[in-house]
From TrEMBL:
InterPro entries per UniProt: P-loop_NTPase, Rad50/SbcC_AAA
Name this polypeptide is given: Nuclease SbcCD subunit C
Stretches that traverse the bilayer: none
Known partners and oligomeric status: Heterodimer of SbcC and SbcD.
GO BP, one annotated term: double-strand break repair
Gene3D superfamilies with a match to the protein in the record: P-loop containing nucleotide triphosphate hydrolases
One Pfam family per UniProt: AAA_23
Lineage top rank: taxon: Bacteria
Entry's family note: Belongs to the SMC family. SbcC subfamily.
A single GO molecular function term of this UniProt record: ATP hydrolysis activity
Keyword Coiled coil carried by entry: yes
Native species: Dethiobacter alkaliphilus AHT 1
Length: 1021
């Protein structure tokens, strides 16, 4: 993974900054409080979900929410932007991932868990590992916590580093597997109980198998019995069928004979009835002959009566029509006379009312025209733009407000820069003195090499003297290394060697004292050099700030000069003129209003506005100087006064305009109400006129209808005369009808008697024919009866009812036996099925019992294996940790020697006790971590941390926050080289430090500049 960009918005001291990173070493520097550690914390929060405190505290003071964006390259070599949002009100931190190339959000990630899993997969972290722990314990140890774990108690150290090296998992696995053992034992116990229960149940299998064999034998025996009974039943059924058929044939012939005999009886009864009907028909025919003449006369008279009764109806209808016509004529004649008189009176009334309405309509039309003229005039006043005299002024202020806001902000920046420059001047005022002191120390330190050479020369000389003295004491020549013949020479030179050695010892003591003093000067030199570096940086910063101050002042001057004061003066004067014009308009409206009685609105009291104070202030601003920040501040103060005064002036004007517009609106409403009232009156008159005109027309239509009715009355009189003539033709109708009715009464008895016997007479021939047919049928039926009786005699000779009944009884017994055997066989089948099901169930249980026995064996082996594994896991943690410590000790040892240039050995002992081994006074010395100096502790801790980072981190990232704490200059320089060497396989490193030891090694230097107002600024080199 590589981090290319980090964007911080409202994060602690950062307001809105973007920081770019490169591959390799990224060096982050800045003064205390500039936000160096904040960068690492932000990376921890956005990429590793780690923040050592509440996210609410990460929001910049004065802001409600913050945001972090990190642009990274993942394992798939694509760019992704990871965004983390947080605020002061909620605990939830929004976490989103965007594909930088497509600018789309990865919608499949829902919540922190999904994003965390995606990050682990994308940057190469094991899914089971914790992002927070990896960041906190391996790749980014917090400032000041490098050595903290090594100072803990044995138990705490073991807990911390067991977790980092993941060996704690072995102990956790042992503890967690305790429940596994109990679980297996519980399952084994449960399985054993089930198996014993099954074993008890399957003991019945042999008994059931024996019952099944007996059942099968019984079934076969009863099946044979059933077949024999079934055969006997079939034989009896066949005999019974033969006898039954014979009996049915006899019964059928007897039924036929009985039916024919019954038919014969019916034929005789019918013939008797027909003879009687024949006699009655002959008698009826005689009566018809006697009454035929009266019957025919009755029919003729009846037909004539119908004709004369129809004529009577016609006469009655004519008479009814005549009466109705006479009545209608009288009624219509009276109605026409009354309506004619009423119409004449209504016509005169309508003419009088119509004349009065036309006079009223003319008057209302004139009033309507006058009120419409008033309405147009008021609407022309209302549509006149009265706010344009202050809108341009407000627009001018709005257009310049952003300029003035920028000017105020720029002025604040200039003043802050001035204060900062003054503060830095006070801090670096002793810079020349420090430079002079440093120069003297450099000269003094330069003599240190000369002192070391002298000391080395004296030590060599001392060693040579001691060696020569030894040779001489042994009788050897110190020059040629051979035996010296003169013992006297050796004795004479002993005082010489003593004097020389004394002189050398005194010289060495003096040089040792001088070198100790030299070391103190060197320490002072380093401290002074650091102070000078800081002071020079501050001086450089001050020069930059002075340049920036000049630029900001010039920018401020330009902003102020952009304001067009002449335009403002013109706008004020124009506004004043328009306001006076409005005053004249108000006076004109008040004069018109005094002549309108129907309007109850009071006259408008117009208050004049004065703008001389604004004009004077504009003149002062125009004349003000802009030479320095103080004058510009005065200019901006007057501008604020101008803005406040103008705003008050505009508010007064706007308030008066609003009152004027409301007043004018009230007048317009009053005029419109009056117009509506007059319109309603005028429309009412027009509607009334139209209504009366419609009534006149209706009256004319009624008079026309009366004329039509008079013509119709004449036609009705003619119709009455015609009906009177027609009625005279029917004078004999009554007499003729009466005479025909009397004749009908005389022939009525003969007519009825003829009708009563007519039907019976007509049936005489039919009855005679039916009698002949019955006689033939009787003869034929007698012949059939004789034939059936002969056949019956023959059939009865072959049938014995007693034998037939015996067969029936035997068949009944055979059927009952078959039924009983069938039911018994069905019961045997059910028993066989039941026994088979029981056997199958028990065989299944037997199979389950066999499987359970095997499972019990497996469970037993599993329990033994689990116990073996648990014991192995229990004892594995410490050996694994020992291997890790050996490997890490070797790595840390190399790093420590590189940093310290000392012949020491770093050893990470049991319980993670960090130790240093060296030779002291020709003896091996072992010191634990708490016995080490601050520099040694920091070096040893960093060595182990680098080794851990190199071994455990697959992310290829490293973060070092102030790693040079407690280290001298030599170790700081060596540490920088060691970090670079130990992390060659890393893609990116991030180092935070005040130290310049990393300047020559870095690919990217990020300088942070503290600014309390706008937030920390970022510069990259």
């Amino acid at each position: 993974m590589k981090i290319y960009e980090l964007h911080l918005k409202n994060c602690k001291c950062y307001e809105d900054e973007t920081i770019n990173f490169q591959e390799g070493l990224n060096f982050i520097s800045g003064v205390n409080g500039a936000g160096k550690t904040t960068i690492i914390e932000a990376i921890g929060l956005v990429l590793f979900n780690f923040l050592p405190y509440n996210a609410k505290q990460f929001v910049r003071d004065g802001k409600k929410s913050g945001e972090i964006q990190a642009l990274i390259e993942a394992k798939d070599e694509r760019l992704y932007r990871i965004i983390r949002k947080f605020n002061k009100t909620t605990k939830t931190l929004k976490w989103e991932v965007y594909d930088e190339e497509t600018n789309t959000c990865l919608d499949e990630l829902h919540g922190s868990d999904d994003v965390s899993r995606w990050i682990k997969e994308s940057i190469g972290i094991d899914p089971e590992d914790s992002l927070e722990k990896i960041f906190e314990q391996v790749i980014a140890v917090n400032q000041g916590l490098f050595a903290a774990p090594f100072l803990e108690t044995n138990a705490n150290r073991k807990r911390i580093f067991d977790e980092i090296l993941k060996v704690a998992g072995y102990r956790e696995a042992f503890e967690k597997s305790r429940s596994l053992k109990s679980y297996i034992e519980g399952e084994e116990k449960e399985l054993k109980a089930i198996t014993e229960h099954l074993e008890e149940e399957i003991k019945d299998i042999p008994t059931i198998q024996e019952e099944i064999t007996k059942n099968q034998q019984e079934y076969e025996k009863q099946t044979q019995n059933y077949a024999a009974a079934q055969q006997k039943k079939q034989q009896l059924e066949q005999k019974d069928t033969e006898w039954t058929k014979l009996k049915e044939t006899i019964d059928a012939r007897q039924n036929e004979k009985n039916l024919l005999e019954q038919t014969l009886i019916s034929l005789k009864e019918k013939m008797d009835s027909l003879d009687k009907q024949k006699k009655e028909a002959k008698k009826a025919r005689d009566i018809l002959a006697e009454t035929k003449e009266a019957y025919l006369r009755y029919q003729n008279n009846q037909q004539d009566l119908r004709g004369w009764e129809e004529k009577k109806k016609q006469r009655d209808a004519l008479k009814e029509d005549l009466d109705k016509a006479a009545k209608d004529h009288s009624t219509e004649e009276k109605g026409i006379e009354v309506e004619t008189k009423n119409n004449e009176l209504r016509a005169q009334e309508l003419q009088d009312k119509l004349k009065a309405l036309q006079t009223k309509e003319s008057a209302t039309a004139q009033s309507l025209q006058a009120i419409e003229d008033d309405l147009k005039r008021v609407m022309s006043w209302e549509t006149r733009e009265v706010s344009r005299f202050f809108d341009p002024w407000q627009t001018w202020f709005n257009n310049n407000s952003s300029l003035m806001a920028d000017a105020h902000y720029a002025l604040q920046s200039v003043e802050e820069l001035t204060a900062e420059i003054k503060e830095i001047q006070n801090e670096i005022q002793d810079l020349p003195q420090k430079e002079e002191d440093l120069s003297l120390l450099v000269t003094s330190i330069a003599k240190g090499e000369e002192l070391l050479q002298k000391k080395s020369s004296l030590i060599a000389r001392k060693e040579a003297l001691v060696q020569n003295e030894t040779h001489l004491a042994a009788g050897r020549c110190p020059i040629i290394q051979e035996a010296c013949p003169s013992q006297k020479v050796a004795g004479d030179l002993s005082s010489y060697f003593a004097n020389e050695l004394k002189e050398i010892e005194e010289g060495l003591a003096q040089l040792t004292e001088q070198l100790a003093q030299h070391e103190k000067q060197k320490v002072k030199h380093d401290e002074l050099k650091d102070q000078l570096t800081l002071a020079r940086n501050q001086k450089s910063t001050m020069e930059k700030k002075e340049k920036l101050q000049e630029e900001k002042t010039e920018e401020l001057r330009r902003l102020v000069k952009k304001v067009s004061l002449k335009e403002a003066l013109d706008l004020i004067k124009t506004g004043q003129r328009e306001y006076l014009a409005l005053e004249q308009l108000v006076n004109e409206i008040n004069l018109w209003l005094s002549a309108k009685d129907f309007i109850t609105v009071e006259p408008f009291n117009y208050q004049p506005l004065h703008c001389q104070a604004i004009l004077d202030l504009l003149t002062e601003i125009e004349r003000a100087g802009l030479d320095d920040a103080g004058q510009i501040r005065d200019w901006l103060t007057k501008w604020d006064q101008l803005e406040a005064g103008s705003q008050k002036w505009l508010e007064q004007a706007q308030e008066q305009v609003k009152e004027y517009q409301k007043w004018l609106s009230d007048i317009l409403q009053a005029v419109r109400l009056k117009e509506q009232e007059i319109k309603q009156q005028h429309e009412f008159c027009l509607n009334e006129i139209k209504d009366y005109q419609n009534q006149e027309q209706h009256l004319k239509d009624k008079n026309a209808e009366l004329e039509t009715r008079r013509e119709n009355l004449k036609l009705l009189q003619k119709e009455i005369d015609k009906l009177t003539d027609s009625l005279a033709q029917f004078s004999q109708v009554e007499d003729k009808v009466d005479s025909l009715k009397k004749a009908l009464e005389n022939d009525q008895k003969s007519y009825d008697l003829y009708n009563e016997n007519k039907q019976a007479s007509e049936r005489l021939e039919i009855i005679e024919q039916e009698i002949k047919e019955c006689q033939a049928t009787v003869s034929e039926t007698n012949q059939k009866i004789e034939a059936l009786q002969a056949e019956l005699n023959e059939l009865l000779s072959h049938y014995d009812s007693a034998k037939h009944q015996d067969i029936k009884d035997e068949l009944k017994k055979a059927s009952e036996q078959v039924t009983e055997l069938k039911v018994y066989l069905e019961q045997i089948k059910k028993d066989a099925k039941r026994l088979k099901e029981q056997l199958d169930e028990l065989l299944k249980k037997k199979s389950q019992w066999e499987q359970n026995r095997y499972k019990l064996l497996v469970k037993n082996k599993t329990r033994e294996l689990a116990q073996t594994i648990r014991e192995t896991i229990k004892d594995a943690a410490d050996p694994v940790a020992h291997v890790y410590r050996q490997y890490l000790s070797a790595e840390a040892n190399e790093i420590y020697r590189h940093v310290s240039n000392e012949n020491v050995q770093v050893e990470w002992a049991s319980e993670y006790e960090l130790q240093l081994k060296d030779n002291f006074h020709a003896k091996e010395r072992v010191r634990v971590f708490k016995q080490l100096s601050g520099g040694e502790q920091m070096t040893a801790a960093l060595a182990v941390r680098l080794a851990l980072m190199k071994m455990l981190s697959d992310v290829k990232l490293g973060f070092f926050d102030e790693p040079t704490t407690n280290l001298d200059s030599s170790r700081r320089q060596n540490l920088a080289m060691a970090i670079q060497k130990s992390t060659k396989g890393f893609e990116q490193l991030f180092v935070i430090s005040h130290d310049d030891a990393f300047d020559t090694l870095t690919e990217n230097t990020i300088s942070l500049e503290k600014d309390e107002g706008t937030g920390t600024g970022v510069k990259m080199y």
